[in-house]
Every structure is written in C-alpha cells, then in structure tokens.
Amino acid sequence: MDLIATIEDLIRFRTETGNAAEIAKATQYIKDKFAHIPAQVEIFQRDASPVVFLRNADTLDFDVLVLGHIDVVPATDEMFEPRIDNGKMFGRGTLDMKSFAAVALNSMEYVITHKLPLKFGVVLSTDEEKGSKSTESFLAAYPEIKARIVLDNDVGGDITKIVSKCKNPVFVKLIAEGKEAHGSTPWDGVDANELLMQAWQNIRRIYPYFSAELPMPNDKWIDTVHFAKIEGGQVSNIISNYAEALLDFRLTEDSTVENLQKNLQKCLPTGVSYKIVSASTPVVMDEDNPDILDYKRFAENIMERKIEFEHIGGATDSRAFAVKGSTVIMHSGTGEGMHASGEYVELESVKQIADIQIKFLKHLAAKK
C-alpha cells in the first residue's frame, strides 16, 4: 500500500462529522482498498454514523485491534487539498487522524499478505469529533468484541511520547430556575443568571481556573473543569427565569463521579440543579506492562532515541476496551494544529509509526 497516497486520498474526502455523503464516499474508498485482499470489511450502520470494521478472520476475539476515526472538524476548502512542504503534510485530518487511519489500513494489508498468525482487526468510526455515538452503537451490536492489545494512535501529537494515562471526561449540565420580572424591578424576580454565576463561583473554589495568562500548575495531573457553554436570558429588560451551562470536567484516576456529585451538591444554591450528561472512565496503563515495554523497545530502536511516558487530559475511545482488560498502547505521530487552520503532520513520524506497528505485530506473531 502506498501510505502517503492513501493519506492524501483520505484527506480529500470532506468527512466533517455529519457530512453523510462524503463519509459514505470515504468508507467505500476504504472498502474498495481491500477488494482484492481477503479481509472481511463491514460498513456497520445502525442508529448513528457508519463504522468501518475490518478483520482478517471471522472472530470478535482479537489478538490486536486498532481503533481510530476518519471524521474531522470543519475547515476551509483549501484544507481538504493536502499539501506537502519540507517534510510536513498540511491539511484537515493530517494529524487528527487520517494519517494514522491509513497506518491501520497498511497494517491490515501487511498482516494478510504476509499471513501473520494473528487475529487482527481495525475499527474506524465516523463521528468521534462529536461524541462517538457510532462507536457506542457498534459496541452495543457486538458486545462480545474484545482484544488482548489495542493500538490507539488518536492521542497526543508527539512520537517521542507514549501515553500511559488519559483522564475521565465528565460532562455536566447546570440548570438554574428563577422568577421572571421586569428589569427595572429586580426585587420582584429571581435572576437565574445570578444563580448560575453563584454556582460557578462556588465550583471554582474547588476546581481552580487556569489559562495561558496564569501560571501553569506544578502538577498538571489534577481534576479540571471549563465552562463550555453558558446560556441565560432572552431580552435585556426581563429578569431571566432560566439559565444553563455545560461543564467539561476532566477527572484523574484518583477521582470518582460520585465524589464529583458530592462536590456539586455543596456548590449549588437553591434554584440550581445539575445533570450528568455523560461520564466515562480514565484509561490507565501499567508502564511496566510487558507488551507496552516491547512496543516501546521497537519504537526506540526505529527512532534511535529514548521514548518517555506521558499523561494527557484528553479522552480516548479505547476506554471501552480498557475496562474489558485490554492492554491499550497509545502512541501517535508528531504534528501541530489539531483542529486549527495550520494542521500538519510530520511525514517521517507517520512512516515510523507504520514501521513500529508492523515490527510489533511481527513480534507478536512470532510469539504465538
């Protein structure tokens, strides 16, 4: 497989989350890639966007499973025409994460054409950027799916780091209910906006505010929250009787949703309630795990340098397999501009990830 050409082809599909026509073209492109290679390719679709499911055997019990996605955040037309300059490929999805979806397809082709004795699969979702409902639907349809090892390239952006911990994303809606009144007589009403701000201030006493304009904490592996969305009021001269906010908490493995709920109860004044919109689980891997150390050794040999472990605040779809006991290896290529106008990936890092992945798969096959 021509890895770079495959990446360029995938970038040209305008697979912004929800763009069903372009997503259909992209999934068909992937299916056609394996028209003459004996892989089982299913375009799964039930209640959400499609999922591309490839495997080299009729099984749901995998030795290795690669997870990823091919949807992207919105961008200008120019960003869907890949451009290579000084060893970097620019374009929407180069880093997040079509380059590494192509790596997964390359690994599938290698496993099949070289007849590696591994049960190998690839799962590519198409709505990861808006909550991965397609993955949830897919896993619900195949509850017995499992893998001893999961390769996750949708993390970080630095090939010199292997991620060993991801936080638990918990989204909470605050709801403030007041009493409507004319803006000139606030004593006749109860301002829902004020109630919401009181709750906000109380929450900040437990979960401090951080920004680029403030000193960075000494320890970044802490619980955080940002106020993702705030709405309240309709017109300027009416006391708001309703306001709401969406909060994005990121919890470490030492925290629990139950403890978060206790904290929220202490922070909310009368008239304010909350609802857990979604919660997950942190992904925490043992850095002494033998499979992870083997992978790390191959990566260091190929890159001719030491690789470090790091912790990130972002979430990963591999959490669904981590809770089943899978060893999750989270490692990505190098680039910048994820979700931004200057998104790029260093092509050498993509080639190295592809090489590392194949060397690791050959090693696992030899052990069977």
Q: What labels describe this entry?
A:
single chain; alpha+beta; Aminopeptidase; nine-stranded mixed beta sheet; four-stranded antiparallel beta sheet; 9 helices; 19 strands; 31% helix; elongated
Number of strands: 19
Q: Give the mean pLDDT.
A: 96
The backbone outline, from C-alpha atoms, is elongated
* Helix/strand order: HHEEEEEHEHEEEEHEEEHEEHEHEEEH
CATH superfamily of the largest domain: Zn peptidases
Please state the second-level CATH architecture of the largest domain: 3-Layer(aba) Sandwich
The radius of gyration is 23 Å
Per CATH, the class of the largest domain reads Alpha Beta
Counting structural domains, the number is 2
CATH topology of the largest domain, anyone?
Answer: Aminopeptidase
Number of helices: 9
Distance between the termini: 26 Å
Which structural class best describes the helix and strand composition?
Answer: alpha+beta
Helix % is 25-40%
Unreliable segments (pLDDT under 50, ≥5 consecutive)? Answer: none
Largest sheet, in brief, is: 9 strands, mixed
DSSP strand (E) fraction?
Answer: 25-35%
